[in-house]
Amino acid sequence: MVVFRQELGDVLRDARRAQGRTLRQVSSDARVSLGYLGEIERGQKEASSELLASVADALGLPLSYVLREVSDRIALAEGVVVPDTVPESLARDAGGTELVGAR
Asked: What CATH number has the domain bearing residue 38?
């Protein structure tokens, strides 16, 4: 079973390591305790939306990027292909409302 908090922790850890930063540096910038951020990265704790936004900001990443990475990892684990754009049929079914990415 795919667990959101584990995928989120992996995304945050991968981003931090790719930047060559320590857990201590990011926790300080995000104003989150070192221990709590470590638990989030290990998938042991759920992050609130406020905390997640603070950590993403400390990493210099848009929150939407972090969530998209998590979503892509979950889709991969589930064997689901998620299109990068909104399919035309879905855009039509939305009642003519223009959707971001609809073509």
From this structure: 1.10.260.40
> Nearest-5° angle of CA 77, CA 43, CA 19?
90
Whether residue 100 is contained in a domain is answered as no
Domain containing residue 74: 4-93
pLDDT at 30 over 80: yes
Burial letters 49-81, b for 16+ CB under 10 A, else e: eebbebbbebbebeeeebeebbeebbeeeeeee
CB atoms within 10 A of CB 46: 12
- Cα separation, 24 vs 32, in Å, equals 9
C-beta of residue 35 within 8 angstroms of C-beta of residue 42:
no
88 contacts: CB under 8 Å, gap ≥ 6: 102, 103
Q: Are 32 and 21 in contact (CB under 8 A)?
A: no
Can you give the pTM of this predicted structure?
0.79
